[in-house]
Amino acid sequence: MTAAAAGGPLTGLKVVDLGQVYLGPYCGLMFALMGAEVIKVEPPGGDTIRGIAGGRENPAAMMLNSSKQSVVLDLQSEEGRSALLALADNADVLIENSRPGTMEKLGIGWETLSARNPRLVMGSGKGYAADSVYRDAPAMDFPIQALTGLMSVTGFPDGPPVKCGAAIADFLGGIHLFGGIMAALHARGTTGRGDFVQIAMQDVTHHALASNIASFLLAPDGFADRAGNSQAVLKVAPYDLFPAQDGQVAIMCLNDRHWQHLTRAMGRPDLAEDAELAEGPARCAQRARVDGWVTAWTSRHTRAEIFAALNSAHVPGAAVRTLAEVVSDEDMRARGMIHDLPHPDLGTVPVPGLPMQFARHNRVPPIPAPAAGADTARVLGALRQSGLSTRSEDKN
Amino acid sequence: MTAAAAGGPLTGLKVVDLGQVYLGPYCGLMFALMGAEVIKVEPPGGDTIRGIAGGRENPAAMMLNSSKQSVVLDLQSEEGRSALLALADNADVLIENSRPGTMEKLGIGWETLSARNPRLVMGSGKGYAADSVYRDAPAMDFPIQALTGLMSVTGFPDGPPVKCGAAIADFLGGIHLFGGIMAALHARGTTGRGDFVQIAMQDVTHHALASNIASFLLAPDGFADRAGNSQAVLKVAPYDLFPAQDGQVAIMCLNDRHWQHLTRAMGRPDLAEDAELAEGPARCAQRARVDGWVTAWTSRHTRAEIFAALNSAHVPGAAVRTLAEVVSDEDMRARGMIHDLPHPDLGTVPVPGLPMQFARHNRVPPIPAPAAGADTARVLGALRQSGLSTRSEDKN
């Protein structure tokens, strides 16, 4: 019934991606993997993320810029600025996550771009919103995690706050920016006019704390921000990591039915029949004993054995995997979530595939990220042929 | 130059939100806050998230369902199913994040809905993809954090893995699902046909680990997944939390310029002139001494004083705030990111505002979330008047 088309759902859209590091590039990557034509505009020397690893190119640059074209422009120069304006004049979308004020200082702010191309949707991702008291603060993922409380809710109750190991504010920012731009494009379908979409990492990270804030509101007095691998407020148990023969497993009994199922998986029907353990609050009160029984079971098995048993018993849980294991995941490869693409210096890099599946569009395999400026001459040549004055490619 | 319209960019879209807990409801919230008409369909008794806090309604239910309508339907009954079909027949979008197979079992799967309303875009969020080896595993945020390695990269090198305190896989899932649905709506503008969009929390969480995976690839031998509040691979320092008089501050010198600026903020120009400290690797090698100097400065000041000094010096950093401080943030309120809305039992609840700012659309203040089924009679009455046979409202 559903015939899948060869191109992605955003085929035909033209995107100028001035994104840097993670936030902007991840937003641009969504466009690229969905079939839009994405031109990554980089400064001479390339996006700073490329060089951050010292002598070698950072694999992250390749992971977040696949399927894009790269044009190097010196936006400090008149030629570079003219070329950028010409690209924006022909684009549906422009993405940027430079420091506040940078675009205006370069003479390529929203007012300028929109006056020239009223259909343009410009998406800006910042650390703090333009109307925030913190708007001038240098913002990166790490300080945003501190200020939003994400750090405060991560870690153990008797230990210090700790950051979420992933640059989560950046990625939440990038995908919110994508969603906002798509909403503006939707409105353009009716109005014919573009829009200026702004998101702040502070705001999107704050919103992702909704469940923590709810827990705090339910028990503000003596609330411990951090609950380790357990639950801050809900009276549920077991809910933690447990030792396996080859690592650890996460097991959560969010309700009493999960506990009943878990006891069977553990081969302990006697526990299922113990009325004193039937309800969450009672199990919480005896948590050391409950966790001990679970540990006695998990420590005799491998993570895979436990995961399989949990799945059969319909108990939420999973193996705790190391990054080395995740990077070598074969199922992710089979499903097109990781593509091993060649890089001239790095060998192969595990490049992410589009994390959305569309019934009517086949997933397009990613194309290796270009070297900085690989498409400068061709793209600017084409612009010039269509009568737009640009000369900056002479420099690259 | 930019005239802002009163309605949101998605005004006119009709969304049926079968979302549960966090993922689906957050996706639906984006539609609602951007002006779409969102009908939250709940089972008798309401979305399970409402009751999870025991006797009181969970504030999270109100935070994620503002500006929606609520219709209670028993989808196990023929009447409930008919009503859902009638709603979907008239909708642009249907969102769901039920367990794999649930929609098909209820007779409201994609093939059925799409055959009746070819313009419908259905968005499904799951823990694992339909083609994953884990597709039948019960999935929630906690096990997804374990399996994806997010837990493995969070915490201290000498401590155990720890979850990111926020339900980050849920929120990443919800906003990716929103982005995917918007892309399908964009394609519908050309093809006239809807689509079936699927995302998996495993995949979107994996992709948010791109920077960690890049670090691993650069130094796979002896790679420590966890770096506490510091940096796993980059040779940069200082980069950590430091003690202030009233808590902690995050400070990161990602490059040598940041260090130069920091020493001035600290009133230690002597350190700026010390050639042995000029470069990151050298400062890393002397990390205890470097951190000691920073601590000597931070421990004499409050977080606010330090944050102000860092901002003036253009050094990335911020106060580590507790959840109690975040919940009472006045700037978030002034900017419309938190709205204190009344709830019959909970008093006021800090409800999130739309985290995207559109130049051409004023932000619409959120309307308090409805009680479960508050709109059942009215919505189904209107459906019946338009000739569609539904009777399930008799039950509620």
TrEMBL record, chains A, B:
Alphabetized InterPro entries for the sequence: CoA-transferase_III_domain, CoA-Trfase_fam_III, CoA-Trfase_III_dom3_sf, CoA-Trfase_III_dom_1_sf
Gene Ontology molecular function terms on file: CoA-transferase activity
Keyword terms of this UniProt record: Transferase
Top-level taxon in the UniProt lineage: Bacteria
Pfam family, one: CoA_transf_3
Name of the protein described by the UniProt record: Carnitine dehydratase
Taxonomic lineage: Bacteria, Pseudomonadati, Pseudomonadota, Alphaproteobacteria, Rhodobacterales
